[in-house]
Design a protein that fits this description.
Number of helices: 0
CATH class of one domain: Mainly Beta
CATH topology of one domain: Jelly Rolls
CATH architecture of one domain: Sandwich
Mean pLDDT: 96
CATH superfamily of one domain: Galactose-binding domain-like
Distance between the termini: 83 Å
Largest sheet: 20 strands, mixed
Number of strands: 56
Radius of gyration: 34 Å
Structural class: mainly beta
Low-confidence stretches: none
Shape: elongated
Length: about 725
């Protein structure tokens, strides 16, 4: 048992009465073994404020029905600096309303009153805490400063002190909350004091409040499925702005959900000792499990009932520190645990295999929720992680980042409001399934240089850049992708050959529904698109096959003209607009359509070649027809060809390609010579001297009119 509040690391850890207190000194390597489960006491369940709040999509502001705090000073108006203290209004590093108070200490200053602000007479007896933000430009020892509430107008007579009793890192915002205790009934000023000589420092203060349960350390939310609890950037009466610990001004976190006026809750968390730096490892398992015998850290347990009925939330508070370090740790599982407001929630650099994060998550960390590296994937592997049924909201860079890890399984997660939702690099043979990767400020999913990925049931909406990006990812298999309302493309694919995508729905994206480049033999089925601004589908330097499309845009297909001589670049759509018998091939040289009206025979389909370039041949098929033949037997190929009156290109040709098999040294060509609207039989012959595959095609060019092709036949002599 592990109780982060009431435990004792000297105890046995075998019951809640003898529970350990810390990860590092409680479940030591000597005390645990592979297969063990360590139960962790839960943090308290969310608590209602007994009022509604207005949440607005893509806004930082949450509006309360009634205020839960009282302003002592919002730090918008200048304070009075004492001797050797220079006061200024700070408009860059500011938490509330774009202004904070900045105090610069001269080397002649030693201790005592630094600056003060008259507040008018305010009665704070209804509140039991003081909360404010402080920020310094150099690291500072604990107990250097205090903020005092004073009964006089000049900050001299303190009636309540909040001593900053922890060390502070440079260039870091800290949300301070005083110890609980009744606040004074009469306050006339607020003051900043130095208890020891601070040296030449710059101090910033902002948003000084009297409060009870709503402080600058609180996480608030709607307590609803699919959403989370958000950290606070500032409070001013009924206006609460959400923001990550190091957000300031108008940058950073916004609410990513639907606009609602609903009950407001706060979630208690377990506040960890403050990290000494961004890279401080705050907790770590002391021992690895084994294959088939994991060590499990199981959160959410109720010591009173002995049941698991909640979650354990580890909170680093300041956006600094690695909450759970997993370097060289294998076969460890975390259940019903969340890791919030650190630098990283869970992290590993090398040799961290088969770890699990289940029914929890990692949110509002300044770098990443989960970040795992394998510097040399074949030797320092970090493979086979399972990350499922969790929330990864609002991390400064990445929701989940994997570099060099193979065979990960990431399923049923909400990955929302990060910069990148999921970022993969050299993450081969991984599975991503049933993910919501939305409202991220760059990409929902950014998948790079990763082979054999499997994706299913992915929703990637409202991302600032693209919904889903595949780059250098051959042999992907994806099923049921949805990307709506992204800033640029719904799905962007580049250099991803031999992939299969079954089911794509892209709507109202700022550029293309899907954009594909440099990808060969990519197969897509059931492509639906509507409302995308530039076009439904954009492609270049690719060979793409679609089976079933429905595109409601005015511009359905966009083909880049950067590579006009790339004859083998094409998009082939079977059942265009989901119409049986309507098949089309798009290329730079023109379009090829199935033809049911102009036929040589009365049934079936012919091909209609609609060239668009005078200097580039439109070829049927773009990558040639192919036939298996045997050596030393003459092959005869026939086809009927016809032109209409508008056709203005060179005569259509039937071409048997030379130099494909020995015995056919050069192209064998028959050229169409018949009059307009007359069908003509073209024929080419050749005798290969080796077994293999012959290639042949019909081509034409021009800028107007059509060539029709029907009734191919191929025969080889007995």
């Amino acid at each position: 048992m592990l109780d982060l509040v009431n435990g004792n690391d000297a105890s046995a850890g075998t019951s809640w009465a003898t529970a350990w207190k810390t990860f590092l000194s409680g479940p030591t390597a000597a005390r645990i073994a592979a297969g063990d489960t360590i139960r962790i006491a839960k943090t308290a369940a969310p608590i209602s404020y007994a009022q509604n709040a207005q949440w607005t999509n893509k806004s930082k502001t949450v509006t309360l029905t009634s205020a839960k705090t009282a302003n002592i000073d919002v730090c918008d108006v200048a304070w009075t600096g004492k001797l050797y203290i220079t006061q200024a209004q700070e408009t860059f590093y500011a938490k509330e309303n774009g202004i904070s108070q900045k105090f610069t200490c001269n080397s002649s200053f030693t201790t005592g009153l630094m600056a003060y602000k008259a507040t008018g007479t305010i009665n704070l007896s209804a509140y039991d805490k003081v909360s404010f933000w402080i920020f310094l430009d150099t690291a500072t020892a604990a107990n250097t400063f205090k903020v005092s509430l004073c009964s006089d107008v000049a900050g001299v007579t303190s009636v309540h002190d909040t001593i900053i009793d922890f060390a502070m890192e440079a260039y870091t915002w800290y949300p301070v909350v005083s110890a609980t205790g009744a606040l004074p009934a009469s306050v006339k000023s607020v003051a900043l004091y130095a208890l020891i000589d601070p040296g030449t420092k710059v101090i910033r203060l902002d948003n000084i409040l009297a409060c009870t349960t709503l402080t600058l350390q609180t996480m608030i939310g709607k307590n609803s499925a699919g959403d989370t609890f958000y950290p606070i950037q500032s409070i001013n009466g009924t206006t609460v702005k959400i923001g990550n610990p190091q957000d300031y001004g108008t940058n950073g976190l916004v609410y990513p959900g639907s606009t609602q006026n609903v009950s407001l809750y706060y979630r208690p968390t377990h506040l960890l000792p403050k990290a000494a730096s961004s890279t401080t490892v705050m907790n770590s398992p002391n021992k690895s499990g084994a294959l088939g015998s994991l060590i499990t850290f199981s959160g959410g347990w109720n010591p009173a009932s002995g049941l698991r009925d909640g979650e354990t939330v580890l909170d680093a508070l300041t956006g600094r520190g690695y909450i759970m370090g997993m370097d060289a740790i294998d076969y460890v599982s975390f259940w019903y645990m969340s890791f919030v407001r650190g630098s990283r929630g869970v992290t590993a650099n090398d040799n961290s295999t088969a770890n699990n994060i289940v029914y929890g998550g990692a949110s509002f960390n300044s770098d990443a929720g989960v970040k795992v590296y394998a510097s040399v994937p074949t030797s320092n592997d970090s493979d086979n992680w399972i990350v499922t049924a969790g929330d990864y909201f609002g991390n400064g860079q990445y929701g989940i980042y994997v570099d060099g890890g193979r065979c990960w399984d990431i399923e049923v997660n909400n990955i929302i409001g990060n910069q990148y939702g999921v970022y993969f690099q050299q993450a081969h043979f991984c599975t991503l399934k049933t993910l919501v990767a939305s409202y991220n400020t760059n990409y929902g999913l950014y998948l790079y240089n990763s082979i054999g990925l499997i994706l299913e049931a992915i929703t990637a909406d409202y991302n600032t850049s693209r919904g889903i990006n595949f780059a250098l990812c051959p042999e992907i298999y994806a099923k049921t992708l949805s990307a709506y309302n992204n800033g640029y493309d719904g799905v962007l694919i580049s250099e991803c050959s031999s992939g299969i995508i079954e089911g794509v729905d892209v709507q109202t994206n700022g550029q293309y529904g899907i954009s594909i480049s440099a990808s060969i033999n990519l197969k897509i089925s059931t492509f639906n698109s509507t409302g995308n601004v530039t076009a439904a589908f954009n492609f270049t330097t690719s060979q793409i096959y679609i089976n079933g499309s429905l595109m409601a845009e005015g511009t359905k297909i966009s083909l880049s003209t950067l590579y006009p001589i790339a004859r083998d670049v094409f998009l082939s759509i079977r059942k265009y607009e989901n119409t049986a018998g309507d098949h089309r091939i798009f290329s730079y040289a023109g379009t090829i359509l199935s033809e049911s009206t102009v036929r040589h025979t009365a049934s079936g389909l012919a091909w209609n070649l609609d060239p668009g370039q005078a200097l580039v041949k439109l070829r049927l098929l773009p990558n040639n027809f192919k036939a298996v033949v045997i050596a030393n037997k003459e092959v005869t190929i026939n086809v009927y060809v016809r032109k209409n009156a508008a056709y203005n290109g060179n005569a259509a040709r039937l071409v048997l390609k030379g130099k494909v098999l020995t015995g056919i040294a050069a192209d064998v060509i028959d050229t169409h010579t018949a009059a307009v609207d007359d069908w003509e039989l073209l024929e080419v012959k050749g005798t290969p001297t080796e077994n293999g595959v012959l290639e042949f095609y019909v081509d034409c060019d021009g800028t107007a009119g059509n060539i029709y092709v029907d009734d191919f036949s191929i025969a080889q002599a007995a």
